[in-house]
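Tokens help. Our protein:
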Amino acid sequence: MASRAPVSVRSAAAGRPAGRATGRATASTAAKPDETTRRRARAIAAKLAELYPDAHCELNFSNPLELLVATILSAQCTDRRVNMVTPKLFARYRTAADYASADRAELESLIASTGFYRNKARSIIGMAQELCARFGGEVPDRLEDLVTLPGVGRKTANVVLGTAFGVPGITVDTHVLRLAKRFGWTTSDDPVVVERDIAALIPRKEWTILSHRMIWHGRRVCHARRPACGACGLKELCPSYGIGPTDPQEAAKLVKTKPIDELP
């Protein structure tokens, strides 16, 4: 079971709420960036496309409902761990109605290793009940509807919109937030503001794939503590070059090249 291109079914995702604002981020809501910043941002985005031509969502799923559940589980948890849990979970619960009527203790036992399992079980059951009550058991494909579901904020809504439905969205997770600040695209720690600032720099059609590429780069090269600056393909463009080791050999040791399911 692997991540897939957008499908024509309805689905959603969740995590910790990152604000309940509805509607998509648009360039018109942000202060207009200067032309130098915009050109450099687009050059970085183009280079990321060269570096990660195969970037994609690294949560395993075969339909939008599975992506929804996997994204809920990914809060404060690695994708690797989620991908270890979901095969058995997805075999046990196949529809929104299955999750809505799930025995909470049983569900908690299946997802315990992802952490915060009581809250996650509550979110999954509550979300599924809302899907059955309001959306015919399907996850809506509009941001305005997704963020009304229990536990669903803009971040997880954008994961589902972009990955399951092909609706452009910027997923501001910890990697995207960190890289956007290092690239000089934002100065904010507020995910909603960061989303807005990125939207002002990058064409809308690129939002989803850019998010995936930034996440890949953050996981593999631009680490939180010791970014591999000397081995980074963006070193000629990045204004933060030098905050990590610049010696190519030293930096190369920090680069993670394994598939996500083999990364720590």
